[in-house]
Amino acid sequence: MTATTTNRAIRLASRPVGMPTADDWDLTEDPVGEPGDGEVLVEVMYVSLDPAMRGWISEAASYARPVGIGEVMRAIAVGRVIASRDERFVDGEHVSGLLGVQEYAIVPADGLQKVDPDVAPLPKWLGVLGMPGLTAYFGLLDIGRPEPDQTVVVSGAAGAVGSLVGQIATLQGARAVGIAGGPEKCAYLTGELGFDAAIDYKNEDVRAALRTTCPDGIDVYFDNVGGEILDAALARLAHGARVVICGAISQYNATEGMRGPANYMSLLVNHASMTGFLVFHYASRYAEGARQMGEWVAAGKLKSREDVVVGLERFPEALLKLFEGTNDGKLVIAVRES
Amino acid sequence: MTATTTNRAIRLASRPVGMPTADDWDLTEDPVGEPGDGEVLVEVMYVSLDPAMRGWISEAASYARPVGIGEVMRAIAVGRVIASRDERFVDGEHVSGLLGVQEYAIVPADGLQKVDPDVAPLPKWLGVLGMPGLTAYFGLLDIGRPEPDQTVVVSGAAGAVGSLVGQIATLQGARAVGIAGGPEKCAYLTGELGFDAAIDYKNEDVRAALRTTCPDGIDVYFDNVGGEILDAALARLAHGARVVICGAISQYNATEGMRGPANYMSLLVNHASMTGFLVFHYASRYAEGARQMGEWVAAGKLKSREDVVVGLERFPEALLKLFEGTNDGKLVIAVRES
Fold first, then answer.
1. What is the DSSP string of A55-110?
2. How far is B220 from chain A (nearest CA, A)?
3. Pick from B62, B257, B274: which is nearest to A269 by CB?
4. A47 near A75, Cβ under 8 Å?
5. What ipTM describes this predicted complex?
6. Domains of chain A by range and CATH?
């Protein structure tokens, strides 16, 4: 590592209208700097691609400051410490944090967590053992609160969060019904992950399929997608149902404003609730969630898979896989060929 | 009372599309019958007009069977027993129940509650001491759960339910902000009912006014109206806010489907919940609610007023006042001139 080492980074070039295109990004090269006091220089290895990224590049104020034009794209990632100016980290340790879409990151040590590649391969620390795992854990158990034999429906069910929601539901003794796009994903849900039923929204009438698969109604609906599927689920709620709002990926690229759930009056008829959350709201309980998820993974009770795209420069096209639903498991970028 | 006494009744003639018109109703005359075992013949005195009526005359399945074409319009009302075939009721007692929009009703005694005109005038038994009162009580205290110094916003604030929601909020030590149409209603809220602030949605920018009147955000939003005002309130939620869905009067006559709350993702950012209810869900706790509301009324802590329209035949036009927002207090029909 010398001052002349080059850092390649993906930077936001312009605010996308609707679906982001290749023109909205720049690939830049700059010298890697030196960490200051309390900072750590990390060689970034795997970058997490998440639906929330669409919000981060929008101008609208949200829970996070928008990524500025010309700034390195924000991303959670894992990497290896190569120079530390903080006593908590030494060279060679693996860490996760908001490292950005780049080859090298200089970040405050306070924002880093250690990860152990001997416990699980590094990409899993961005999925089942990372934020998606905690999102599924807290969203389902703290807000959804499924009881044994109740019916849990999750959309985006083959995705990083949804696939865990269904599996955690079955670990609670609940029935899990997943909504996903395409027969392969549906077969994965019922065949490998133990979902009780799967609905292929690309080829099935979701409303009719919810009637068939949820004869007693939906007790917990965990929503990752919004739009028509949210409305279909609302129309099928059981009395006292809990709707968990985790995301709305079908709406993130809408150019004419969000579509609200027209069937929200089903909440009234069914004395049901709809509650939203961000995983950050549970920061004080991360240790609890990480411990339980780790135990389940170690016991072989939670399966997960990762879709690894190789090459930092492929970020713009890889991001679109999320919105097209063509990723196959938790989507990450391997910064370098291994 | 003889078998030749005539009962005038308002019956549903056709299912309205959009706003109901005079043509959607028939005024019929039929002989009054005789109550059977377990039934009571009631002379109907005051009929309650409620936003829920719009749902009852729609074809769409809801919590209540739709009123059939040719059937007497469903309504809660108060009246006087004139013939009882049930030991629990004697002639001359006053009762409330689903008596319908008519002069005489023969109903099962099981569906009647006694009311005492010495405690409060009969129309108040359809408002503050009736279903609107219980709706405000349970919706605000069981779902909204305002804490002292928190901010409670209620729409339809000059209406039968909303005016009580704001007053109960202040009794809990919370701040009450009402949204109503027109300067007179707003003056009533802050001048007579003790609301801390009022927003005139017909003459003010509701979003701007919510920023001014709720500098720390909205902790509890009690919604009676839906539509744009619901979206404006969602945009101003505080962390952990509770949204109570009680009604959506702005949407009940929509001919192109309900409009969903486009800003529902505010629930996610703010870890907020949106919960619906029908007062019937609290049937097992009516006694508790009625006792507390009665105590507050007796202590002069809850003010209410009624808008009494005289004449059964004026039902079709009177109903529209609800949707136009031109009623001044709880809307009831006095079946006869007193």
1. HHTSSS--SSPPPPTTSBPP-EEEEEEEEESSTT--TT-EEEEE--SBSEEEEEGG
2. 14
3. B62
4. yes
5. 0.91
6. 6-126+305-334 (3.90.180.10), 131-280 (3.40.50.720)
Would you mind telling me the total number of residues written for chain B in this entry?
338
Contacts of A152 (CB under 8 A, 6+ apart): A140, A144, A146, A165, A166, A169, A174, A175, A176, A177, A218, A219, A220, A221, A222
On whether any CB of chain A is under 8 Å from the CB of B246, the answer is yes
Contact B258 A263 (CB under 8 A): yes
Place of tokens 């999750």: A154
Residue B89, both tokens: 């009721």
User: End-to-end distance of chain A based on CA atoms, in angstroms?
Assistant: 19
With beta carbons less than 8 A apart as the criterion, state whether A94 and A117 touch.
yes
* HEC readout, chain B: CCCCCEEEEEEECCCCCCCCCHHHEEEEEEECCCCCCCEEEEEEEEEECCCHHHHHCCCCCCCCCCCCCCCECCCCEEEEEEEECCCCCCCCCEEEECCCCECEEEEEHHHCEECCCCCCCHHHHHCCCCHHHHHHHHHHHHHHCCCCCCEEEEECCCCCCHHHHHHHHHHCCCEEEEEECCHHHHHHHHHCCCCCEEEECCCCCHHHHHHHHCCCCEEEEEECCCHHHHHHHHCCEEEEEEEEECCCHHHCCCCCCCCCCHHHHHHHHCCCEEEECCHHHHHHHHHHHHHHHHHHHHCCCCCCCEEEEECHHHHHHHHHHHHHCCCCCEEEEECCCC
**CA distances from residue A98 to A1, A24, A72, B133 in whole angstroms, order as listed:** 22, 21, 11, 51
Rounded Cα–Cα distance for residues A63 and A52 (Å): 11
A276 residue type, one letter: G
Determine, for residues A268 and B258 on separate chains, whether the beta-carbon distance falls below 8 Å.
Answer: no
Helix (H) or strand (E) holding A137: helix A131-138
| Of B319, B322, B285, residue with least CA distance to B139 | B285
Tokens of B100: 């319908």
3-class DSSP assignment, residue A121: coil
Encoded tokens for B28: 């019929």
Cβ within 8 Å, pair B275-A271: yes
Q: Can you give the pLDDT of all 338 residues of chain A as single tens digits?
A: 555 699 999 999 999 988 999 999 999 999 999 999 999 999 999 999 998 899 899 987 677 899 999 999 999 999 999 999 999 999 999 999 999 999 999 999 999 999 999 989 999 999 999 999 999 999 999 999 999 999 999 999 999 999 999 999 999 999 999 999 999 999 999 999 999 999 999 999 999 999 999 999 999 999 999 999 999 999 999 999 999 999 998 888 887 788 999 999 999 999 999 999 999 999 999 999 999 999 999 999 999 999 999 999 999 999 999 989 888 889 999 999 87
Q: What is the DSSP code (8-state) at residue A186?
A: H
Residue from B200, B202, B196, B231 nearest B215 by CA: B196
Model-wide pTM > 0.90: yes
Q: Distance between CA atoms of A40 and B102, rounded to whole angstroms?
A: 80
Residues of A in contact with B229 (CB under 8 A): none
**Residue B287 φ then ψ, to 5°:** -60, -45
Check if A283 contacts B (Cβ < 8 Å).
no
Beta-carbon count within 10 A of A284 CB: 7
Longest Cα pair distance anywhere in chain B, in angstroms?
Answer: 66
